[in-house]
């Protein structure tokens, strides 16, 4: 078997995804049963380009863990042979990534304009933020909280009826560039708020009594890059001193156990923590805004994909937060709400214990700033489509997630501190 590995490795010097057609690329799911099988995956990752989808780094792989990863076309048969020979349990989740990529765009609404049931590119989203604020001046306002590495404005929408001393909930989407369902949810949430205000009693009460800050896309440069160059890009697009590798993982870039566990100090890694906490202009802008509004922001919600999880602190340590009981019961009830619509099952709990340890995340950081109600959503699915969730699932995904978000927001309103 090791001879096979060496052969695969020898052929592996080809440049990474130059043509960026994903034709013939495969996504495998394996469940290593023991340390030796984990070691095989580590070796594989050391000799070729392996894009880990779940968990997001080979360093986090443990026996009995479900592992999803992507392999370039010309290596996929070798890898499959290797998995067979090692006796590792595996399945091919996606047989041809290009076909899955094309199949994402299955929405009937193929308009050039903004549409809530399809994936919108950044220019469309940016124009939408201006439009929704202009059309709903008594409910929505738009501001710029900073700019990205490539100089784009980071638009923030503030939603709610104006009133004295209002507390707020901060929600962001689009941390990781390839998680397209995430920005789709932020847009959906804003749409639901403006359309159901005055009709839906819960939403009306929420907007009367709370403000919502919604950052539709955190990692704008990366998001654009997934539309123009590489659909599978994850990080920011900043240059790294002394390296040809681009970008930092913005969700490993916060000052919460920074770069201690589940994050890499190698600029080429998908989970690169950056040169320092808040080294990225995007994370710094977000953190600065929250610090400036700490007296009013009472909840922090960050939306990711995929795996159907509702997580709360901590991810950078196995220690439980002091508010564990309360956060766990909220997550339990919110997951139940979410499942009530389409029976979508979510797993919930503290990040490190529920999935794997990961330092430098925005939810842990927000919690440590004193924002008690801090949650991370990992939206659909559990791997059948992974990051390439078809547009036909945007509506059901957003509808069910909205139920959980409204539940949490209502809970926060009733338990202000």
From TrEMBL:
Which cellular component terms (GO) are annotated to the entry?
cytoplasmic vesicle; extracellular space
| UniProt catalytic activity | Preferential release of a C-terminal lysine or arginine amino acid
The signal peptide here is: 1-15
> InterPro entries per the record?
CARBOXYPEPT_ZN_1, CARBOXYPEPT_ZN_2, CPB_M14_CPD, M14A-like_propep, M14A_act_pep, Peptidase_M14
**Keywords assigned by UniProt?**
Carboxypeptidase, Cytoplasmic vesicle, Disulfide bond, Hydrolase, Metal-binding, Metalloprotease, Protease, Secreted, Signal, Zinc, Zymogen
Question: Which biological process annotations from GO are given for this protein?
Answer: proteolysis
What coarse category fits the chief subcellular location reported for this protein? secreted
* Record-listed E.C. numbers: 3.4.17.2
Does the keyword Isomerase belong to this entry? no
| Domain of life (superkingdom) | Eukaryota
Whether Cell membrane counts among this entry's keywords is no
Any one Pfam family here would be Peptidase_M14
| Ranges of residues in domain Peptidase M14 | 118-412
For molecular function, the Gene Ontology terms on record are: metallocarboxypeptidase activity; zinc ion binding
Question: Per its Swiss-Prot or TrEMBL entry, what cofactor is needed?
Answer: Zn(2+)
UniProt-annotated location(s): Secreted; Zymogen granule lumen
Catalytic center residues = 378 (proton donor/acceptor)
User: What family, per the record?
Assistant: Belongs to the peptidase M14 family.
Q: Spell out the protein name for this chain.
A: Carboxypeptidase B
Q: Which organism is it from?
A: Falcunculus frontatus
